[in-house]
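Suppose you are handed a protein chain with no further information: no name, no annotation, nothing but its sequence. What can you learn? This example shows the usual starting point.
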Amino acid sequence: MALMGSGVVAVAPASCFWPCTDICGHHKMSSNYPRTRICSRRRLLPRYSNGSEAGASSLSCRQPIVSAEPPGQSSVLLPPDSDIDIDSNSNSSRRQPHLSTTTTTTTTKQEAAAAAGGVVMSPGLIDYFQVSEDLVLRSEADGGPPRWFCLLDCPCSSSHSASSSKNHNPLLLYLPGVDGVGSGLLLQCKKLGEIFNVWCLHIPLSDRSSFSVLSPLCTVAFLDLVKLVEETVRSENSRRPHTPVYLVGESFGGCLALAIASRNPDIDLVLVLANPATCFSKSQLLPLLPFSHLMPKEMNPSLLYMLCLASGIPSRMAMDALQKSLPLEQTVGELSQAARAVSSYISVLADLLGVETLNWKLKMLKSAEAFSNSRLHAIKARTLILSSGRDSMLPSEEEGERLRRLLPDCQIRTFSDRGHVPFLEDGFDLVTIIKCASFYQRGRCVDYVLDYLPPKPPEFEQIYEPHRWTEVACNPVMLSTLENGKIVQGLKGIPCQGPVLYVGYHMMLGFELIPLVARFWMERNIVLRGIAHPMAFKRLKDGKLPDLSTYDAFRFMGAVPASATTFYKLFSTKSHVLLYPGGMREALHRKGEEHKLIWPEQSEFVRMAARFGAKIIPFGAVGEDDFGQLLFDYDDLMKIPYFEAFTRELTDEAVNLRSEREGEIANQDIHLPVILPKVPGRLYFLFGKPIETEGRKQDLKRRDEAQQVYIQVKSEVESCIAYLKEKRENDPYRNVLARLTYQAVNGFDAEVPTFEL
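A reasonable first move is to predict its three-dimensional structure. Written in structure tokens, the prediction is:
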């Protein structure tokens, strides 16, 4: 039987889905966060003519919400503003939730409250606690085993279900921590839903897979969860065998994801693990395990409060409220609302989470750790580990490094200022992290061209912020050439439509890349797809090269590994391609080679550009000599035995390009030159007149014709460099001190002038 509610059609095991019901709780959700849809095929309630349903003692009848239903089933959707009172006979000690599907946007109300000096509810973690409380209450009232639910108000929701067969987004299964609620992606789901079909696993608090004896069967219970997720993974794989399935596991969910990957090495899986609990034996919680069964029931709330504090969520909520710099009354109001949300959720957990259940969950966590660690050798899936530096529950940084060494295709990203649950922390963007690490793929292998997702303005600001100092330091002068040959300031001469190939000079260590790519994005909204060395994407072995995370910003902004296939795909998708024919040899030039082109003798790009009619724009870049002086270059370092061995070691770790070439261009040894910094000068760029190749495909197939165009491009780049070197001598603001003085007088947002054109 198929489920059609999340924009995907996937076969799923029976008795593991919720009735298709909107759960919003008694609060008014912020418009910035989606509501939650619970999807199930278990115990679907019949719909009566008056709108009520079996199992609910009361239901106010209004016009129902229109939504897709699982085919062949009659699911129930709560009408707007409906009240459901859980039957008191089922459990008199449990709270009776007020469930509402009110979808009124609260932005206007919040603005009105702010204007009136009232308290504005802070979205995010408060929403998380309230939604989690509603999920827990509903699952306890409904009963039953673990099940999936999906998220509303995402592109993969019911409004898109009709076109689900055309939806090529991968399926993402979220596996929660040991609490099992499954709402941990609440702050991430809006962006995730744009590129994934997101399902979340909910494990009811009281579920123990029908076992009453604890310790001997905890491993069996964990395997039951593994099999439940495994069935969904295999069903999706059988339906779309060439599309990967993503498993996003948090803490306990990380163990679950690793166990599934070890049992299914032939299925294309991508793992994203946040602080996996594979190191639970080193956790500060472990001493609680021998004494947990001795704790009286009255200790439950205190223990849960302690665990909540250890997660770092309450302190994060308080910091978020304080950092807004709101008036004292509003700040106190937000803090009190946050405290009430946490207290309400903890009180629900205390009512439902008995000592035996808590003890069972801790033992299952220990079993999950042992099971997953014993099978790490069988895992073949691509794995991205997210480690937090301020995890108070687990030694996550140390564990992330251990897993990176043990898993065959594994990368790690460390966040020194994050806690145990980073997905719930403000400013943590899972989509951007996945894109930066090049972990988004729609096929069996990542396609750096077709799978690339261009940055959105907020994402660009987030990535560019740590590098914004380069704008102040070098204040680049961008010049371009119109079709009539006139040189103008700015990028007006740059074509809007691709394919376009930008060919130029590579400064020392690629110093010009950040300002160049940033200016193209900010001024023309153009993403430059830079042809980069493969060392920015993979390593032949671990060693002393910088971590792959060093190149995250470049991959995020469109860098691709150098290859003929990549070139072909970029031109076929009409991209703007950035190419440095001098490559690493030019970027690691020797003394006296500043602004010198070190290119291959034969053309490497002209015929490919002509095949797609791409415009070739030569450009020059000048200014590296105003920022540093080269003290020890490659020749100097190779005379020192220590540095010679170090250079050989670095080179052996990376893919060797142009090994078949002859001459100086074939010297691709990786080394770290010693540079003496100078008082910053200024960078200058000049983009020459576009060279047309459209209509010349047949002519440029001949090597001699292509070589003539190649020589023309090289000559134009040299002319651009000579022009800039001459003109910069007349720039009164070439020095950073002169520029800062000008901006101090005219405003720091003022554009600093340059030489006359």
